[in-house]
Design a protein that fits this description.
mainly alpha; two-stranded antiparallel sheet; 35 helices; NAD(P)H-quinone oxidoreductase subunit 5, chloroplastic
Length: about 750
C-alpha cells in the first residue's frame, strides 16, 4: 500500500468515533430502554471503533515514517469567483502525532469509564457524548484550513458543554457547563474575527498557503503591522479561552463537576490541547509578528505562575489537578511565545500522559471514597477527609505517585525533560520569564506532592469521630455531622456494613486499574527520548521525530553523554523542584499527628515554621481563586446586568413608549370621534359641504386680497382657462352631485318605504 493511497484512510480516524456516537445516540433515542439494558455491548461497540481509529493512526504514522511528507486528501471544492475552499484532511507529522495522542488517551479513558460509569443511568448517553467529543477533536487535528478548524472547534466546545453538565440535575454541574460555554464563546468570537482578518490579509483559508502568502507580504512590507498584530491577537483569544489562559481561565476549575473520565480527557488530550495545537499550526504566521509573540509569552507566563499559586491550598482533589493543568498549559503557551514550538509540543505530549494518569488515579480514589462518605463532591473529593489510602489502594497509590513525580519535574520521568527545555529556553529569551518558570517549577513540585501526601499518606481521616481538624483545615463539620449528629443520608450507608473495616476505601477493579498501569509506562519512559541526539530540535516535527526514533534509543552511542549533559544543565530547576518536594513532605507528611485527639493549637505551632502570615495569605488566595471570580462578579457581571437594566428601561419607556403612545393616541382619537358619529351619510355630507365651503371661502378671500378686481379677474381666468381645466372642474363637481343624490334623495326614499311598512 503506497503512501498516496494511505492518505485516503485518514477519513476513518474521525469517522469511526463519529459513527459510534451517532449509532449509540440514535439507538438511545429510538429504543431507550433496550439500549440502556445493553450496557456491555454498547461499551464494546464504542471502544472497538475507537480502537480502529487508533490502529489507523499508528498505521499512517509508520507509513509516513518511511517517506516523510505533507499530503492533503480533499473531498469537496467550493469555488466562487476568486474564492476556493477545499474540504478534506491534511496528513503531516503534527496531525499524526496528535491523532495518536487523542486516540490512545481516549481509548484508555473509555476502557476506564466502563467500570466507573457502570451504575449511572446515563451510561449509553455518556459514551455517545464521549465519542462525539473525540471525533470532534480528531476532525480539528486533521483539518487543512481555518474554516474546518473553526467548525470542529465549535463542536469541541459543544461536547464539553454536554459532558461538563452531564449530571445536569445537579445545579452546580449545570452552572459549570454554562460558565464554560459562555467563557469559550468569548474566545470563539475573537477567533472568528481573527479568521476573517487572516482572509482579508492573505485571501486564503488554507493554512500552508496563508502562511506562505503572509511571509511574502511581510517581506515586501505590504502589510500594516498594527492590523496584522490585531488579527493575530484576535486569533490568540480563541486558544486563551479554550486552553484556560489568564484571564479566561475561570471555567476550568468548575469543569470538574463532570465525571472524572471526562476531566482526564479534557485536561490531557482534547479541549485544552486544542488551543496549543492551533497556535502550533499557525506558528509560521504568528512568528513573524514580534509584538504578538511577546504578548503570547507573557500571557503564558502569568498563567503559569497564577495556576501554581491557586493550586497551593486547594482541598478539592480534582480542582487541585485542574489548576495544575492550567499552570502546565501556561508553560506550553509561554514556549510558543518565545519561539520554542518544539519544546511546547514535547511538553504537550509528556504532560498529556502524566495528567491523564493523575486524573484517572483521582477518579479511582473518588470512586472508592463515595462508598464511605457519600456521593457529594464536597465530601468524596475533599483531600482532608482522605489519607492513608496507599495502604488500602496500593496500585492506585503507586500509579498516582508516578504521575506526581512526573508533574513535579523529577528525573527521569517524562515531564522533567520537556519542562526543563522550556525553562532553559525561557532563560535564553528573557531573564524575567526564566525566573518565573523556575519559581513555578518549585511551586509545582510543592502542590503536587501536597496532593499525594494528603490523599495517600498518614491515616484515613474520614471515619474518626474525634477528628477536629487537619492540615490547614481547622474545621471539619462534615465528619461531625456524619458521625455525631446522625442526620446524614450517608450514615445509613456506613451503618449497613457489618464490619468496621469496610468503612475504609477499597482498591478499584481491574477494568479501572489497567488503563492506569498502561499510562504509567509513557509517564516513565516517554520523556527519555528528549535526550536523544538524533532528534531535530529546530523542526516543528519534533513529535514525529520523537515517536519515529524511539526504537533507536538503545543503538545511539551518544545517548548517555547527552543524558549527563542535560542533567548538569538542569541542576538549578531540578534543585528548585527538589526543594518544593522537601517542603511539602515536611509540611504534610505529619498527618498522624492531626488524626489524633490533639487540639488545633499544635497545628498553629507547626504553621509558625513557615511564616504564618505568608501561609495564611496564600491559603486565602488559593481558596478564593485569586479573587478573580469576585472581580468578575463585581465589575463584569454586575456591570453587564446594570447596562442590561438601563437598555431595558430605555427600550420599555422610550422606544416602546413612543410606539405605544402613538397607538394609544390614535385609539383615543378614534374612540372620541366614534362617539360623536351616528353613521348617517347625511351628517358626513354636511361635514363635507362645510369643509368645501370653507375652502372656497378661503380661496375667494385670498383673491380679494391679492387682486384689485377679483370678479373680473375670476371671469377672465375662467374664459381663458384651457379645456382640461374645465374637465377637471367637471370631474370634481360630478362626484359631489352623485354623493348629494345618494345622501338626500335615496335615504329619504328608503325612509318613506320603511314608514309605509311600519304602518301596514
Amino acid at each position: 500500500m503506497t503512501v498516496e493511497l494511505s492518505t485516503k484512510y485518514a477519513c476513518f480516524i474521525p469517522l469511526c468515533p463519529l459513527v459510534a456516537s451517532c449509532s449509540t445516540g440514535s439507538l438511545l433515542f429510538l429504543f431507550p430502554k433496550t439500549t440502556r439494558s445493553l450496557r456491555r455491548p454498547c461499551a464494546a461497540f464504542n471502544i472497538s471503533l475507537l480502537a480502529a481509529a487508533m490502529f489507523v493512526s499508528f498505521s499512517l504514522f509508520w507509513q509516513q515514517a518511511a517517506t516523510p511528507s505533507i499530503q492533503q486528501y480533499l473531498w469537496i471544492r467550493i469555488p466562487k469567483s476568486d474564492f476556493c475552499l477545499n474540504i478534506g484532511f491534511a496528513i503531516d507529522p503534527l496531525t499524526l502525532a496528535m491523532s495518536i495522542l487523542v486516540t490512545t488517551v481516549g481509548f484508555l479513558v473509555m476502557v476506564y469509564s466502563d467500570s466507573y460509569m457502570c451504575h449511572d443511568q446515563g451510561y449509553a448517553r455518556f459514551y455517545a457524548y464521549l465519542n462525539l467529543f473525540i471525533a470532534s477533536m480528531l476532525g480539528l487535528v486533521l483539518s487543512p484550513n481555518l474554516i474546518q478548524i473553526y467548525i470542529f472547534w465549535e463542536l469541541v466546545g459543544m461536547c464539553s458543554y454536554l459532558l461538563i453538565g452531564f449530571w445536569f440535575t445537579r445545579s452546580s454541574a449545570a452552572n459549570a457547563s454554562q460558565k464554560a460555554f459562555v467563557t469559550n464563546r468569548i474566545g470563539d468570537f475573537g477567533l472568528l474575527l481573527g479568521v476573517s482578518g487572516v482572509y482579508w490579509i492573505t485571501g486564503s483559508f488554507e493554512i500552508f498557503e496563508l502562511c506562505d502568502r503572509f511571509f511574502e507580504l511581510s517581506s515586501s512590507n505590504a502589510i500594516n503591522p498594527i492590523f496584522a498584530n490585531t488579527v493575530a491577537l484576535l486569533l490568540f483569544i480563541g486558544p486563551v479561552a479554550k486552553s484556560a489562559q489568564f484571564p479566561l481561565h475561570v471555567w476550568l476549575p468548575d469543569a470538574m463537576e463532570g465525571p472524572t473520565p471526562i476531566s482526564a480527557l479534557i485536561h490531557a488530550a482534547t479541549m485544552v490541547a486544542a488551543g496549543i495545537f492551533l497556535i502550533a499550526r499557525i506558528f509560521n504566521f504568528i512568528s513573524l509578528l514580534p509584538l504578538t509573540m511577546s504578548a503570547i509569552s507573557w500571557v503564558g507566563g502569568i498563567t503559569t505562575l497564577l495556576g501554581a499559586t491557586l493550586a497551593l491550598a486547594q482541598k478539592d482533589l480534582k480542582r487541585g489537578l485542574a489548576y495544575s493543568t492550567m499552570s502546565q498549559l501556561g508553560y506550553m503557551v509561554l514556549a510558543l511565545g518565545i519561539g520554542a514550538s518544539q519544546s511546547a509540543l514535547f511538553h504537550l505530549i509528556t504532560h498529556a500522559y502524566s495528567k491523564a494518569l493523575s486524573f484517572l488515579g483521582s477518579g479511582s480514589v473518588i470512586h472508592a471514597m463515595e462508598k464511605v462518605v457519600g456521593y457529594s463532591p464536597t465530601r468524596s473529593q475533599n483531600m482532608f477527609l482522605m489519607g492513608g489510602l496507599r495502604k488500602r489502594m496500593p496500585y492506585t497509590g503507586i500509579t498516582f505517585l508516578l504521575g506526581t513525580l512526573s508533574l513535579s519535574g523529577i528525573p527521569p520521568f517524562s515531564c522533567f525533560w520537556s519542562k526543563d527545555q522550556i525553562i532553559a529556553e525561557s532563560w535564553l529569551r528573557s531573564p524575567y520569564l526564566g525566573l518565573l518558570t523556575s519559581i513555578t517549577a518549585g511551586l509545582t513540585a510543592f502542590y503536587t506532592f501536597r496532593i499525594y501526601l494528603l490523599t495517600f499518606e498518614g491515616n484515613f481521616r474520614a471515619n474518626q469521630k474525634n477528628h477536629k481538624g487537619c492540615v490547614l483545615e481547622p474545621e471539619n463539620r462534615v465528619i461531625q455531622s456524619l458521625f455525631e449528629k446522625g442526620k446524614s443520608q450517608n450514615e445509613k450507608t456506613i451503618q449497613s456494613y457489618p464490619d468496621r473495616n469496610q468503612l475504609y476505601p477499597q482498591e478499584s477493579n481491574f477494568c479501572m486499574l489497567l488503563p492506569m498501569i498502561i499510562l504509567a509506562i509513557p509517564t516513565i519512559f516517554v520523556g527519555l527520548k528528549g535526550v536523544n541526539s538524533i532528534m531535530n530540535l529546530g523542526s516543528l516535527d519534533l513529535l514525529f521525530d520523537w515517536l519515529n526514533s524511539l526504537p533507536s534509543i538503545s543503538r545511539d552511542t551518544k545517548y548517555i553523554e547527552n543524558l549527563i549533559d542535560i542533567l548538569k544543565s538542569s541542576a538549578p530547576s531540578f534543585s528548585l523542584s527538589l526543594v518544593g518536594v522537601l517542603i511539602s513532605i515536611k509540611a504534610f507528611n505529619q498527618t498522624k499527628e492531626f488524626t489524633d485527639t490533639k487540639s488545633f493549637e499544635e497545628l498553629k505551632s507547626i504553621n509558625k515554621n513557615f511564616s504564618k502570615n505568608f501561609v495564611v495569605f496564600f491559603r486565602n488566595w488559593s481558596t478564593n481563586r485569586g479573587y478573580i471570580d469576585y472581580y468578575y462578579d463585581i465589575y463584569f457581571k454586575q456591570g453587564v446586568l446594570s447596562l442590561s437594566s438601563l437598555v431595558s428601561y430605555f427600550d420599555q419607556w422610550i422606544i416602546d413608549g413612543f410606539t405605544n403612545g402613538t397607538g394609544a393616541s390614535s385609539f383615543f382619537a378614534g374612540e372620541s370621534l366614534r362617539r360623536e358619529k351616528n353613521g348617517r351619510i347625511s351628517h358626513h355630507l354636511l361635514g363635507l359641504l362645510i369643509g368645501i365651503g370653507l375652502l372656497v371661502s378661503l380661496f375667494l378671500f385670498q383673491l380679494l386680497i391679492s387682486q384689485s378686481r377679483p370678479c373680473r379677474k375670476l371671469l377672465l381666468s375662467f374664459h381663458e382657462a384651457p379645456i382640461r381645466v374645465h374637465f377637471s372642474r367637471l370631474f370634481f363637481i360630478f362626484p359631489i352631485s352623485i354623493y348629494l343624490l345618494f345622501a338626500f334623495f335615496i335615504p329619504q326614499r328608503q325612509r318613506k318605504i320603511s314608514l309605509r311598512s311600519t304602518r301596514r
